[in-house]
Amino acid sequence: MTAAAAMVVGLTPPPARATPPNVPTHGEAVTRLAALTVAAEGSPTAYDRGLFPHWITISDSCNTREEVLRRDGTNVVVSSTCAAISGSWYSPYDGMTWTLASDIDIDHMVPLAEAWASGAWAWTTAKRRSYANDLGGPQLWAVTDNVNQSKGNKDPAEWQPPLTSFRCTYARAWIQVKYDYSLTMDTAEKAALQDMLTSC
After folding, report:
1. Cα 177–Cα 183–Cα 184 angle in degrees, nearest 5
2. Positive or negative torsion for Cα 158, 189, 110, 74
3. What's the pLDDT tens digit per position in 160-184?
4. Which end of the chain has the least Cβ crowding within 10 Å, N or C?
5. What are the φ/ψ torsions at residue 27 (nearest 5 degrees)?
6. Taking the CB of residue 48, how many other CB atoms lie within 10 A of it?
7. What pLDDT was estimated at residue 44?
8. What is the rounded distance in angstroms from the CA atom of residue 178 to the CA atom of residue 139?
9. What is the rounded CA–CA span in Å between residue 122 and residue 19?
């Protein structure tokens, strides 16, 4: 099946879909943004994605990616090895709905490289593993693969979701992840987040 055939374009999101937990309210996000330390990005050692072990087994044969696909999809059917073989996934970054799991990436809201440069370089491997597989906060999102690839390691001063109506939620989730892990942010990043919060 082609990607075009697998995609269902919708003008509005499905009426019911899961989202990552613990996205703060606008007021909470404003307060937490003010509490975060502003500092230039950097680390004494080079970033390596392998320093953040993922995807790890969460339950039975299901790894973190598969858990997010089950959590955020609709009518998801999995194989005996937990691979998603059918279902649909709404990508909040661009408003598209997909029916092939291969068209979905699991995005780290605050990318691993961004976290590294914002303080994660000083963490233990165990803490970086927990960060990269965090299902308890708004860190992991099921999104269109090429949109995730366009985001890469960029922060909100460099990249924002193409679906403008989602930018408020994106900013609130980004702030919560940085707050949860006591990560720093640079001045341009903070200014972009403050601007995004005005859309709430």
Report:
1. 125
2. negative
3. 999 999 999 999 999 999 999 999 9
4. N
5. -65, -40
6. 10
7. 86
8. 10
9. 30
